[in-house]
Amino acid sequence: MAGAAYRILAEQLATRGVDVAAVRAALNKQRIETPSWGYADSGTRFRVFRWPGAARTVREKLDDAAVVHRFTGITPSVAIHIPWDRPEDGDYAALRRYAKARGLTIGAVNPNVFQEEEYRLGSLGNPSRAVRAQALTHILACCDIMREVRSPALSLWFADGTNYAGQDDLRSRKRRMREGLQAVYCRLPAGSRMLVEYKFFEPSFYSTDIPDWGTAYALCLALGPRAHVLVDLGHHAPGTNIEQIVAFLLDEGRLGGFHLNNRKYADDDLMAGSVNPFELFLIYHELVAAGAAARHVAYMIDQSHNIEGKIAPMILSVLNCQEAYAKALLVPRRKLAAAQADGDVLRAHALLADAFRTDVRPLLAQVREEMGVPADPLDAYLRSGHEKRLAAERSRGRK
Ligand code: PSV
Ligand code: MN
């Protein structure tokens, strides 16, 4: 099927010196984790528009993740958020088996320490010792859940911060956060990692306890080698050079993973690659350039679909990441290094831009054929009638 178009592209790439077989092999190994919360009704603080057929339970979320994996072939794990994904019977081992029966594993466990009434002034950074203890207890319970679901990572994000100057002592907040994280770090399940996510604002607007990668990095250094920084693409001020942050963390061995999404104005949690595909490409370019240093990086989507559906936009995000990675694999690294060494600014830039401009769709169609998934997964999914079936099935019992 991919046939003629692929052969023409493969020939062109070969004349450019690209090892097409190696590119295909790399694409076959690409993996992206999808978030349980992206399958449920979610959205902005203004309005959550209900989607007919959105998942209502954690098992339905896993069912939907399995559909995304079936159509894309590269999303075999699902991140969970606790307590949002607490199974009704509380049996996490059974949940893991349920996932396994659908060809999935459970990925990162995300403790939620931002929705209880007690967390008004924060969780691990809260001035109250009792509230800090409550947050710590929840996060440690998540470590136990990690053991049951065999999760490789504890993914931490804190809404902690202050809204007004003088509201709290900034140095004390810093120390409390560090102390709390240290208590968690000691209890990480064997072989797992702690991912520390930063966000420059929201829901705290005057100060955020972990506002940037530098703070997250400093905390990780203080904690130990199993603590790594998590880069959520939506959590940066406009104009931030995210790929430079990625390069720095990779080089220091502290890039833990990504929350893939795209932003336009704030933390809008839009589909990955939808606003700025060039940025996504440049990030993948750094990852490819880092080679083995990027081995342990976790690629996780974190988006909140509000008006565009659930499963289909998840598929599109995955495909956008696949496309960005494919283009990054085409960068002629030796030629680029030579242009850089020669100080040939224009040529160096043009080499990158050329890779980005390459239409890799025939290549991806070929790779998908090899993986046994549709050449155009989004189109195949939309035509499958699955959305209609879900909407009918899941409308029962809804108000
Ligand atoms: C916060 O904005 C965040 O990016 C964190 O990763 C949360 O766990 C996730 O969104 C879902 O609220
Ligand atoms: Mn995130």
Structure characterization notes:
By secondary structure, the chain is of the alpha/beta class. It has one domain (30-331): TIM Barrel (Alpha-Beta Barrel). It contains 15 helices and ten strands. The strands form three sheets. A five-stranded parallel sheet has the order 4-6-8-9-10. A three-stranded parallel sheet has the order 1-2-3, with helices on one face. Helix 3 crosses helix 10 (311-329) and helix 8 packs parallel to helix 9 (277-290). The radius of gyration is 22 Å and the shape is globular. The site of manganese (II) ion has 5 residues, from loops.
Main traits of this protein?
single chain; 399 residues; alpha/beta; TIM Barrel; five-stranded parallel β-sheet; 15 helices; 10 strands; 47% helix; 11% strand; globular; binds alpha-D-psicofuranose; binds manganese (II) ion
Give the overall shape, derived from the CA principal axes: globular
Instruction: Please report the total strand number as a whole number.
Output: 10
What class would the helix/strand composition place it in?
Answer: alpha/beta
For the CA atoms, what is the radius of gyration? 22 Å
Share of helix, binned? 40-55%
CATH class bucket: Alpha Beta
- The CA-CA distance between the termini, in Å, is 45 Å
Bound molecules: alpha-D-psicofuranose, manganese (II) ion
**Number of contiguous helices:** 15
Please trace the helix and strand order, writing H or E for each element: HHEHEHEHEEHEEHEHEHEHHHHHH
How would you write the strand order of the largest sheet?
4-6-8-9-10
State the CATH superfamily name. Divalent-metal-dependent TIM barrel enzymes
List unreliable stretches of 5+ residues.
none
Q: Report mean pLDDT, rounded to a whole number.
A: 97
The profile of the biggest β sheet is: 5 strands, parallel
